[in-house]
Amino acid sequence: MYLIIGLSLLLLGAKERMMWGFWAHQRINRLAVFTLPIEMQPFFKKHIAYLTENAVNPDKRRYAVVGEAPRHYIDAEAYGDSALYKLPYYWADAVKRYGEDTLALHGIVPWAIQMYKYQLTEAFRQRNARRILRVAADLGHYIADANVPLHTTRNYNGQLTGQEGIHAFWESRLAELFAEEYDMFVGAASYEPKVAHRAWQAVRQANAALDSVLRFERELSQKIRPEQKFVLKDRNGVIVKTYSREFSQKYHQMLDRQVERQMRASVKMIGDFWYTCWVDAGQPDMVSLATLKENQEEQTAEENEKQNWLKRLLNVRSEAEN
């Protein structure tokens, strides 16, 4: 059923803000588990399938839940020159200066990361296994989004420069073709004492790569014929236009494995934040949490919530509704 969502988001194309491809988000969360210390492994490895599958929950609900979409990006240009070095680090200060409506309009990803960091710390402190998993999966998603260059600009899909489709090209097509070649070993998670700084640092580094993302695609497009740039592909019975392997390979070489670097940065940052939340919560015993039995009532409620996202997104009726 969730395949429908993936196809729907794919077909939205330039009309909506896009995201890391589902595969990349899931891969990033999964790899982050292996950065954690041995004390956290019993719980996180036991639930690695959940953390992997649910890495895409924020994208599934972003078109169905009010207030979700702004957590995935920030439009740096909206705040003037050098905004990413001048904006308030903390949410309360930003609200005082700009108001919540303005912030939501231009995206709040660096602040969302901080909010979810504190939520995860509290979930660890309360020893709430289900909430730990849900918040950890979501936090991983927002961190990964913050490391995408096109999530730091209002020109998020090249629509302002005649490069529509570049978002899915950079974060989905390139990963789809070349991720198996990437070196994703990033070492062990480390404690992050400056959470807000790290969140903003990720956005700044991603934004610094934005010029290359746009310029190299434009330069390459001027050198290659349109029929060589795009191909038609069958994706689960839907014919879509996508970038050719030839064009993708040349762009990938020009970027010098930029997508790989940003994926690696995402994996390391997620591991660091999960670990930091656990430490700040007093390092609760994860072995005992791992042995807790699944609560069927909570599982059912979570599944019903996901079905509700789908229903609101596609505006479909259940079979019981006549």
Write the layout of secondary structure elements.
Layout: H1 2-12, H2 22-33, H3 41-46, H4 48-53, H5 57-61, H6 91-98, H7 100-106, H8 109-125, H9 129-146, H10 166-178, H11 195-208, H12 210-221, H13 226-229, E1 230-235, E2 238-243, H14 245-255, H15 258-280, H16 286-290, H17 296-314
Antiparallel strand pairs: 1-2
C-alpha Rg (nearest Å): 20 Å
Summed over residues and divided by their number, the pLDDT gives a mean of 89
Oligomeric form of this entry? single chain
What structural class should be given to the helix and strand makeup? mainly alpha
The outline comes out as globular
Total E-strand runs: 2
Provide a count of the helices. 17
Topology pattern, helix = H, strand = E: HHHHHHHHHHHHHEEHHHH
Question: Could you tell me the strand content as a percent range?
Answer: under 5%
